[in-house]
Amino acid sequence: MMALVEHAVDVSFGDCDPAGIVFYPNYFRWMDATFHRLLQERAGGHARLCRDLDAVGIGLMDVGMNFRMPVREGQRIQLRLTGIDWGSRSLTLRYEAETDGRTVFEGHEKRGIFVMQGGRLTAAEVEPLKVMIQAKDS
Predict the structure, then answer these.
(1) Distance of CA 108 to CAs 19, 31, 52, 65, 119, Å?
(2) Does the structure show a pLDDT above 70 at 1?
(3) CA-to-CA distance for 128 and 118, rounded, in angstroms?
(4) How far, in Å, CA of 72 to CA of 10, rounded?
(5) Any idea which fold 5-135 has?
(6) Checking CA distances to 134, which of 4, 6, 74, 104 falls within 20 to 30 Å?
(7) Apex 46 CA angle, 56 and 12, nearest 5
(8) What region does 45 belong to: left with phi over 0, alpha with psi -120 to 50, or beta?
(9) Are 91 and 126 contacting, i.e. CB atoms less than 8 angstroms apart?
(10) Counting beta carbons within 10 angstroms of the beta carbon of residue 4, is it exposed (0 to 12), middle (13 to 18) or buried (19 or more)?
């Protein structure tokens, strides 16, 4: 499957739990890093987007993952952001990761562009972000 962006991670001792396998929160951290790589490559990065969109941040609303196999120290994981489903006030990012030709996990993140409105933090329309991200595809 074609990736919008890829991110390689060399698993080190510090990424693993006492059983010697990757401590699961690290997978979520690496998905986040992959998303931020997309923002950097396509739109100048998170800080620039927040300035351009008058936003507080592009934050997480939901996250999930299906684990397929354990990964150990010394292995390299290739993460791919494989697609984005655009809603009106959120976007859902789809990820997959593999090592040695085998699937490690499939995951998703639902994110929103958060702005201050009437003294409250609220999710804004994502269309401006969609235009920025997809501009590189044309």
Answers:
(1) 26, 9, 26, 6, 30
(2) no
(3) 21
(4) 10
(5) Thiol Ester Dehydrase; Chain A (3.10.129)
(6) 104
(7) 120
(8) left
(9) yes
(10) buried
CA-to-CA distance for 36 and 43, rounded, in angstroms? 10
pLDDT per residue as tens digits for the range 50-89: 999 999 999 999 999 999 999 999 999 999 999 999 999 9
Domain ranges in the chain? 5-135
**Amino acid, single-letter form, for residue 18:** P
Positive/negative CA dihedral, 47, 49, 54, 58: negative
CB count, 10 Å around CB of 89?
13
Q: Return the pLDDT at 123.
A: 95
Q: Which of helix, strand or coil describes residue 14?
A: helix
Task: Find the helix or strand (DSSP H, E) in which 127 lies.
Answer: helix 127-135
CA distance 85 to 45: 20
Amino acid at position 37, single letter:
R
